[in-house]
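so my prof wants the structure for this chain in the tokens format not the other one, which i didnt know existed until like an hour ago. anyway here's the sequence
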Amino acid sequence: MKKIEAIIREEKLDAVVNALEEANYPGLTVSDVRGLGKQRGKKSDWHGQFQVRTFQEKVRLEVIVHDEDLNRMLQAITDAARTQEFGDGKIFVSDVMDVVRIRTNQRGEVALD
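here's what i got, hopefully its the right format
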């Protein structure tokens, strides 16, 4: 099993969720996050005064998938989230050692379905 953690632009959330639905994702968690990457903040003009926000508002999606579904889910996320501009985000993939469905106490791959 793999955990996909995608940090994406807020405005791309609906497109990514729709793409994951089409790819038959098992479930996901969404969190509002703030981060700092190569952009190093955003300059804005507010009535003649320039302000610099250090952190960018982003969304974090977390999805646990079967190994054989990994590439399909990654492709769905990248295709839907890409604007080809700085700040599109990052995707991290890590191994998941175990899953427990609390309601039934099922463990492992069967707990994902």
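also thought this was worth mentioning. The chain has two helices and eight strands.
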